[in-house]
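Morning. Coffee machine broken again, so started the prediction first thing and wrote up yesterday's gels while waiting. Chain of 237 residues, entered below exactly as on the submission form.
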Amino acid sequence: MICNTRVAAPDRKAVEPLILVQEITHRVVNEYAQAITTLVLAAADAPCPDAQGALRQAALRLQAFAEAHRVLQPLPSAGDVGLGDYLARVCAALVAASLHERGVRLRLVCDDIALSPGRCWRMGMIVAELVANSVSHGFGDGEGAILIEVRSSGGRFACRVSDNGAATSNPRRGRGSNIVEGLATELGGDVEWRFTPTGTCVLLTAPRGEPLLSVNLELSGDAGEFPKDTADATPRT
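Came back before lunch.
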């Protein structure tokens, strides 16, 4: 007896963009690796210690940028992912790549939340984009503080990214906000933008799976006043 079993193919509209992102990120990271190797070899052949040090420092900076790209690659489909742990890795990579050098403090508070790999990756992309927006539009060339809070309640979660930068009362929509809202739509969520004299606050709410920890959905504190249980992503020196 011969049985023909047809397995439903995955939604091409959902799969193809992830494959393209994986391929582009893979190529970018490889190009970073080639550039880093070139700098390391040039440092070894440099005629003076100052030149060697400068080239090695440049190689370290490129390594940090490469890691920031690597950590934002789409996650493998192998069970739910802890959102807090994943966002902590994303934040650490962003700090090492650029925020620490600019004097920007980045802190994360996150409830115990498990999401599917695809949803978790989209949250990482949203957070990275919002942090980049705060740095570019809120702080300019100065220092600042960014607070990321993720709270869960029942079958939903809320993520708030706030800063103490110079908010614009009537900002223009740009590519960053379009990316954030597009990813939020894929999560089935909503995004609210608030611009105040003390900084910018972006609130994302979206559905999730079964919560690991049931808490009240309460987002409190300004970016300049961090809760005591906040995890500081700034490297220790």
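Residues 43 and 51 are 7 Å apart (CA to CA). Going to sketch it on the whiteboard this afternoon.
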